[in-house]
Amino acid sequence: MNIGMIGTGGFSKKHADIFTAMEDVKLQAVCGTSREKAAAFAAQYGGGSAYDQVADMLEQEKLDAVYICVPPFAHGDTEQQLIERGIPFFIEKPLAVHLNVPNDILHSLRKNNVITSVGYHFRYRDTVASLKKELENHTVGMVTGGWMGSMPLVPWWRNRDTSGGQFVEQTTHLIDLVRFTLGEVDEVFAMEANRVMAGQHENVTVADVGAAVLKMKSGVIVQLSNTCLLPEGVSEVGIRYFHSGGMIHVDMNSLTICGPSEERKETEAANPYVRENEAFLHAARTGDTSRILSSYEDAWRTQEITDAIMKSAESKKAIQLGGN
């Protein structure tokens, strides 16, 4: 398979490290913000054509699949070009800053049968499979969780217009996990503030603390918080499910099940990034999408929630979700 990569950052490398180790998979072409960056990236994997324009890459290369690993603000035209050419594509989350861009892409996808996958890798974890199985036996009442960490150094992340903010860019993983395990969201209410970071750094327009309450269609109440004001190296990311039989805690690497008379812990046995790459490339090669756990259309519903959270924080009103 000949693979194209759009983007030359950390997640581009994470995926390229995985798929170039697979049999009969080759990094054929890279498109970056400059040809120099693209060439340097490609050189890590035995070379490959370098481009600074997506249209040029798609015109000159015969690609079996393309990875899109770019900041939130850079989505839109690239996806439309791939849809027009019928090329399967994998996107790192989030889909965009605001919902209007994914709306247009989803409209195009519904008219064209193109294979897609979105990088919500939590879905591919063994511990999440165990979580879903455990929840089948209990009635969940409430969920709490948070993405607590430091602010990424890249300038685009600190600008709300280019990153969307922490709920859109990071906490989206927890929101997607809630959807994956509990179904769809009916209503959201959120609040945000900037307590520290805007005073310490220039050009910070994202909030550094925030909280959102999600009412699920099932009636479950979910409270998710996030902050990016912690010092580098200090973090806590996880989610807790409170149910009729006890409590389940999921963090970045493990699952802990707590009941009246036992506590059982499972650690991650396999790399979920490998699994999501295998699922996508299998689909691109064979047309069988059954192993893909997050299609573009499914990920759109997670983006709808983060978009509603941001609108609620701005308007100070609860937002009802309508679906599409």
Q: Would you kindly provide a brief summary of this structure?
A:
With 324 residues, this protein is α/β, with parallel strands linked by helices. Helix content is 37%, strand content 26%. The strands form two sheets. It has a nine-stranded mixed sheet.
Structure description:
37% of the residues lie in helices and 26% in strands. With 324 residues, the protein is an alpha/beta fold. The protein has two domains: 141 residues, Rossmann fold; 166 residues, 2-Layer Sandwich (Dihydrodipicolinate Reductase, domain 2), CATH 3.30.360.10. The strands form two sheets. A nine-stranded mixed β-sheet has the order 14-13-12-11-7-10-9-8-15. A six-stranded parallel β-sheet has the order 3-2-1-4-5-6, sandwiched between helices. Helix 10 packs across helix 13. The mean pLDDT is 98. It holds the Pfam family GFO_IDH_MocA. InterPro entries: Gfo/Idh/MocA-like_OxRdtase_N, Gfo/Idh/MocA_Oxidoreductase, GFO_IDH_MocA-like_dom, NAD(P)-bd_dom_sf.
Entry keywords:
324 residues; alpha/beta; Rossmann fold; Dihydrodipicolinate Reductase, domain 2; 2 domains; nine-stranded mixed beta sheet; six-stranded parallel beta sheet; 37% helix; Gfo/Idh/MocA-like_OxRdtase_N; GFO_IDH_MocA-like_dom
